[in-house]
Fold this protein.
Amino acid sequence: MKLRFPVLALALALTTIGIHAQGGLYLNPIFTHISTAKPDTGNFAFLGDGNTSKMFGGVVFGGYYDVFHQPKFDVSLDMRDSIVHGGNASLNSFLFGIRFAAKPVRSSFKPYAQLSAGDGSSKSPLSPIHASKVIFNIAAGIDRPINRHVDWRIVEVGYGSVTTIGSYLYSAPGVPTPSTTLINFSTGLVFRIP
């Protein structure tokens, strides 16, 4: 966990290496609707006592690095960290994934999709304890160039799943582990590195 930020900084620094390398850096607002099928109670209830859904807000920052170019599409590696808060609870999602970006000939819009996995660290509103579990996310979005080095990320929509902290961690064996669903919305700017 403590290596998360140095690894991210190193990966982002590597995007500047190479004459023909290309990538982008971004720092954008993100809104996440978090829900679970079964309400939780007690000090470890991530969404609060008896709640099944809540809206969280925060920031997502990261970068991508193009590793494969074709005339109609690019394949990139993407690394990002998303930090969201809601009702004094928090979720920090560190994700690494693969990104496919189309390059339409007759349009300045650049659609993309990506599949990511990583570490989701959650904290409930009433406890300082964090729980880290595997997180999965699939996202799609549209970027539009503003100038040579800046794209406007019109929208990115994502769907993910993670097991957040809950009373199941501290109760008797046999209590089912709930899965939490994440629906993300983001917009902002992408700074391209030629």
About this structure: Residues 15-20 have pLDDT under 50 and may be disordered.
